[in-house]
Amino acid sequence: MMKQPGPASPAGLSGSKEHKKGEVKTAGGAAAVREQQLDQYFTFRDELKEVEFKRHDMPTPWMNYLSNGTFHTMLSHAGGGVAFYKSPQIWRITRYRFFHLPTDRSGPYIYLQDAGTGRYWCPTYEPAFQKPQEWSSSHGLGYTRFEAQEDEVAAKTVYFVGPYENSLIWNLTLTNNSPAVKVLNVYAYAEFGMMEFMRELQWQCYNKHQVSVQYHPKEALVYKYGVENQPKPEETPLVYMMSDTPLHSYDGDREEFIGSYRSESNPAAIEQGGCTGSTLLGGDPCGALQVQVTLQPGETRTVNFFLGTAMNEAEVEQAIEHSREADFVARSYAALKENWDSYLGAWNCELPDADAQRMLNIWNPYQAQRNFLFSRNISFYATGTFRGVGFRDTAQDILAVAPFDPEAAKEKVRLLLGQQYQDGHVNHYFFPNEGWDPVTSIHSDDHLWTALAVWDILAETGDAGFLQESLPFYDGGEGTLYEHLKRAIDFTASRLGPNGFPLMLRSDWNDQLFRVCRQGKGESIWTAMQLGTVLLRMKDLAAASGHPEHAAGYEAMYEKQKDLVNTLGWDGQWFRRAVMDDGRFLGTDEHDEAKIWLNAQTWATLSGMAEPDKAVQAMDSVRDILDTELGIKKLHPSITTFPDPADPLTNYNKGTGENGAVFCHANTWAIIAECMLGRGDQAYKYYRQLIPNVAMEQAGIWRYKAEPYVYASNLFGPESDKFGLANVSWLTGTAAWMYIAATQYIMGIKPVLEGLSIDPCIPSEWEGFTVNRRFRGCLYEISVTNSSHSCKGVKEIRVDGQRLEGNVVPAYPEKARVKVEVIL
Ligand code: GLC
Fold first, then answer.
1. Is 36 in contact with 30 (CB distance < 8 Å)?
2. Ligand 1 atom having least distance to the Cα of 390
3. What's the 510 CA to ligand 1 centre distance in angstroms?
4. How would residue 7 be classed by pLDDT, with cut points 50, 70 and 90?
5. Contacts with 450 (C-beta within 8 Å, 6 or more apart), sequence order
6. Hey, which of 598, 665, 715, 734 would you mutate to test ligand 1's pocket, going by the most ligand atoms within 8 Å of its Cβ?
7. What's the rounded Cα separation, in Å, for the pair 290 and 216?
8. Which of 21, 72, 171, 317 has the highest Cβ tally under 10 A?
């Protein structure tokens, strides 16, 4: 590891190990040599906002999410995936076999069969045994495209969900590149599951007789899930599968299409030259459609398939007719593109670092939007069975959507605050689509996060009226939005522990801390810092909502907690993390394990609570003890026996997940803290080392494994056996906070209540950068010049040539664009 100069590590704290790139240990310890060149696997096509894949056998399925906000499909680069309507918990349409081999099955597959020879292959590469001679796939924003050629037939398939119907559109373009006429059997296949995935696992043998697939006279298959005691039967849609090309045959019974002891690799029906015409009144359902296409030499033809939902027979019929309109697919695709162009039009930057620029202009806001939509529900790693909407997770996700779509951000705040009780606490997870009871465990942090989101929305919009909206409480009654936020503070203020810090309650942001507070006495020093961060915002919100008289109370609370943090909370070289039930501190040099925790160091600065020398010392300790070449560990040393070998604080293996992994989400706060301390080079080191393709390059693709275009929740740490292995990609708070850290702290362009504050903290070697940012209806064309090669410190700002006092550029509701020149 490249150590920065700094004070020597305390005894026992030299944590990090070197990882040799390209060396992948097998179980027996032998090093397997695999292709390491990333460009052999994928290429970014930034001008198209796409990433292209050159081979199907990536270390894991690399996913994309296709969605119109109601109908969704998670689809891999190799064509595996799962479609669902609103909820993957109760309205999952297709079956995806999580954790099972072969990996990444099933999916919305197309098979192309030469009617003469009977040979068949899939444009998605998988799953047919015969493979295309040429193949690539690409993920774009809301679509995935496969381009393949086999036996002189070229197939381009674009999968996407358009805004006009709730359906996955499979847009297939075939070209005959041979001198002979080609007659092709084209099959579209999707395996339907039971919509309730948990019921399928538990009660399939009975309930399977309550599902049906029927042939619709308009040449479609209609799948009905009508199972006794299912949730919200009246809101459960019918599923249709159809084509815009006349059908040759169909199957609704998976056993008939696939056959016995076969799989998607070799469906019996295809080998017999056509589907069997099966419907299904009980059994294992599927949708399989066959159409036939004759292509003259050089001819190109398009076939579209649709897998969609509609609420009843009449709507199914309408959807079928609508989807067959000549321009339906083209219009749908154009609208999808337009929607993303307009969304991303809120921000565009040019940076000296192409990897960062790509993340900030394309993939990071895209990932953050998907988190906002799906919370932590369903991914290659999360089975979509129970997590609904997590209060704390979604509250944080709002931060990175507010700059693009403040109205959607407001709507999400309203949804969250409907989960708040009159006493100020909130439900931990809830299920707006499923109608299930929420998970009601009370955590010390959950209810506090919303104030950050609301402050950001106010800063983005300038609309203080939002605070006056009247919103219901979960347990009855209502109050203004500001009142909700105030009650969250009151809840924490009335639950302080013996030392005066907030009680941990069930846990705080670090989920595994529930074991230090089982007797209800544990206190969270980190929550004191989170509270402090929120109190600073609450002073503003009190004033904005016409309650300036509350500010003094917030201030007093802040000062009290600040004092505790700097006294009892200080361990000598870093801040302590918590007080355990038995009154001992967690996160102190006195113990052998879990001596230092990342969050307590970063939030001491984020909250403005740390005394200046302590803030610097704490972040130096992060750099010296927790940082590695692949990101910052969550804690060190990892826990194996602490505090009691019979009952350690966590069951996570050392170096994994919640225990000493590089927890990317928590790394984002180190970037912010370093920026707040003015240390732009260190902040940028922390930022850049976690850019997914940069981390992959560093770790080696076969170690890192997850997607190179979206953040993962965590990487195995140096104390594990697989340092650098990325986990739980896509759905993670890393996305929102990386975006905030980079745009608002490194690039320093941060909406505040008075306008757009500009205070970059960049690497000293940068000459400058430019950003176009939409803010309150006006486009700010910002150019930052750093010829002095400093990290931080704005010398001058000119707006349309006029010198500005201070560094907050006001809102210009009457202007379409302004030019902002910034000199560091
Ligand atoms: C996961 C959870 C999040 C929690 C974090 C740390 O990311 O989704 O709620 O804060 O782990 O424990």
1. no
2. 9
3. 6
4. very low
5. 395, 413, 416, 417, 420, 426, 484, 485, 488
6. 665
7. 15
8. 72
Alpha carbon of residue 410 to chain centroid: 19
pLDDT for residue 21 is more than 60: no
Amino acid sitting at position 49: K
Query: Is residue 538 a contact partner of residue 475, using CB atoms and an 8 Å limit?
Result: no
Structural domain boundaries in the chain: 41-341, 751-823
3-state secondary structure 366-407: HHHHHHHHHCCCECCCCECCCCCEEHHHHHHHHHHCCCCCHH
pLDDT (0 to 100) of residue 25: 47
User: What is the separation of C-alpha 330 from the centre of its chain, rounded to a whole number of angstroms?
Assistant: 28
Residue 269 CA to ligand 1 centre (angstroms)? 46
CATH class of this structure's domain 751-823:
mainly beta
Spatial separation of the C-alpha atoms in residues 503 and 299, rounded to whole Å = 71
Phi, psi of 78 (to 5 degrees): -110, 10
Q: What tens digit of pLDDT does each residue of 557-598 get?
A: 999 999 999 999 999 999 999 999 999 999 999 999 999 999
Q: Which atom of ligand 1 is least distant from the CA of 393?
A: 9
Token pair for 197? 């995935």
Classify residue 810 by its DSSP letter. Answer: P
Q: Hey, which residues does 191 pair with through a beta bridge?
A: 286
Q: Show Cβ contacts of residue 29 under 8 Å, excluding neighbours closer than 6 positions.
A: none
Q: How is 223-266 classified by DSSP, letter by letter?
A: EEE--TT-S-GGGPPEEEEEESS--SEEEEEHHHHH-TT--TTS
Q: How far is 231 from 233, CA to CA, in rounded Å? A: 6
**Most ligand 1 atoms within 8 A of CB, residue of 375, 393, 639 to mutate:** 393
Per CATH, 41-341 and 751-823 having the same topology is answered: no
Q: Which atom of ligand 1 is nearest to the CA of 658?
A: 12
Give per-residue pLDDT as tens, 134-179: 999 999 999 999 999 999 999 999 999 999 999 999 999 999 999 9
- DSSP designation for 179: S
Contacts of 759 (CB under 8 A, 6+ apart): 748, 750, 792, 794, 807
Is the minimum distance from the CB of 509 to ligand 1 under 6 angstroms? Answer: yes
pLDDT at position 32 is: 59
Residue at token pair 């803030």: 615
Ligand 1 neighbourhood includes 658 CB (under 6 angstroms)? yes
Alpha carbon distance 628, 618 (integer Å): 16
Please tell me the residue having the least CA distance from ligand 1 atom 6: 510
Question: Ligand 1 test: best mutation among 389, 396, 509, most atoms within 8 Å of CB?
Answer: 509
Q: What is the pLDDT of residue 386?
A: 87
Q: Taking Cα atoms as reference points, which of 540, 554, 505, 550 lies closest to residue 526?
A: 505
Distance 6 CA to ligand 1 centre (A): 31
What average pLDDT does the structure give for the chain? 95
* Distance separating alpha carbons of residues 208 and 105, to the nearest angstrom: 20
736 versus 1: the higher-pLDDT residue is: 736
Check pLDDT > 90 for residue 689: yes
CA distance 608 to 411: 30
The DSSP code for 645 is: T
- Would you give the distance in Å from CA 138 to the centre of its chain? 19
* Closest residue to atom 7 of ligand 1, CA basis: 732
Model pLDDT, residue 108: 98
Q: Which CATH number fits domain 41-341: 1.20.120.530, 3.30.70.1290, 2.70.98.40, 3.40.1160.10?
A: 2.70.98.40
d(CA 526, CA 467): 27
Q: Which two tokens stand for residue 469?
A: 């909206």
Looking at residue 3, its pLDDT comes to 35
Q: Which residue has the higher pLDDT, 6 or 709?
A: 709
